[in-house]
Amino acid sequence: MKIQIVNKSPHPLPSYETIASAGMDLRAHIDTPVILKPLERKIIKTGLFIALPVGFEAQVRPRSGLAAKKGISVLNAPGTVDADYRGEIGVILVNLSQDDFEVKNGDRIAQMVIAKHERAEWDNVDKLDETERGAGGFGSTGV
User: Over the stretch 5-27, which tens digit does the pLDDT of each residue have?
Assistant: First the structure.
């Protein structure tokens, strides 16, 4: 699949690190380093603009290494970039650790997964089909 992209940063285009990778790393495109204090969140720009085909989205997700080692995550994960959005891709980073975290220009801050999606049409009915689970909610299928 080919996707149009404009890269206004000096950084390489997002790419897959291995043949089986689902996500591509997004890099910070900032003039000066940004300090995220504990529990603080900021939008970090990437310098990337994309044009996805209708029926696809770009999902912005946390990088597992940053989350596990530094407590840095992405709010609203996964964030969605819709097919009709043409603005710059930004990443809402949050610092869930107890220490300040510095984001520098070019740092890999999140990953992006391109995903196909369906468009739903509602079928308003009076009753739903029965299932074995039924209305069992959170934790209802076991530990």
Answer: 999 999 999 999 999 999 999 99
CB–CB of 1/82 below 8 Å?
A: no
Element of type H or E holding 67? helix 64-70
Three-class SS of residue 14? coil
Q: Which domains does the chain have, with CATH numbers?
A: 4-116 (2.70.40.10)
Whether 86 and 49 have beta carbons less than 8 Å apart is answered as yes
Nearest Cα residue to 26 out of 126, 143, 107, 130: 107
Q: Residue 47 corresponds to which tokens in the numbers above?
A: 């310098």
Q: How far apart are CA 55 and CA 40, in angstroms?
A: 34
Is-above-0.85 flag for pTM? Answer: yes
Classify the phi-psi angles of 39: left when phi > 0, otherwise alpha if psi is within -120 to 50, otherwise beta. Answer: left
